[in-house]
Amino acid sequence: MSDRRSRTRSRERGTLSGVEGPTDPTPTRVLVVCTGNICRSPMAVGLLRAGANVMGHSIQVASAGTIAGGQPAEPHAVEVMADRGIDISSHRSHKLAAVDIDAADLVLCMAREHVVTAAGEVFDAFDRIFTIKDFVARARAVGPKPADQPLQKWLAELCAGRSHSDLLRPDPELDVADPLGSGRRAYERTATELEGLSWAVLDFLAGYPPRG
Hints:
Low-confidence stretches: 1-24
CATH topology: Rossmann fold
Structural class: alpha/beta
Number of helices: 7
Distance between the termini: 36 Å
Strand content: 5-15%
Helix content: 25-40%
Strand order of the largest sheet: 2-1-3-4
Number of domains: 1
Number of strands: 4
């Protein structure tokens, strides 16, 4: 595996629309994965980018889906993000490829099936591929990334005791439900869940204890 590339911030929750943060020459590269790359992952990308701006935490966030790309974000996804001051209207879906995983320091998936697919693309990347809910739960147990610890070493601690077979066990607690085909309320629930998870991801990566 090739080598991969703290600021004080207010403890107030603030707004995810935020202001542009400072440029970091070595940002953390995060890839978010779902199925169609038209609902959950573009919403998560918008939330992570906006939250990082609020915090002044430099990350690069991209997304992909496990099926063919080229589609715009679902209208309800665009609407619930717009309510948060986040514009994802120009998003077009992208099909996951090995090169996307190779370029990422951390891969956050919406469901276990996406972890299986991503790990199948790049088998030795398993230690940096999680569902977003599993990542947050493990980081909560291990603690935030220490400022002087390389990201990959911290991720290895999060992976302790984890195996590929874990992904075969039914556990809806590790998946973010797909709102595709549902009404706006389902998208609002998903957006609210992803908002909390995105703040937690950013806090843990920046070395802060999670909010709330």
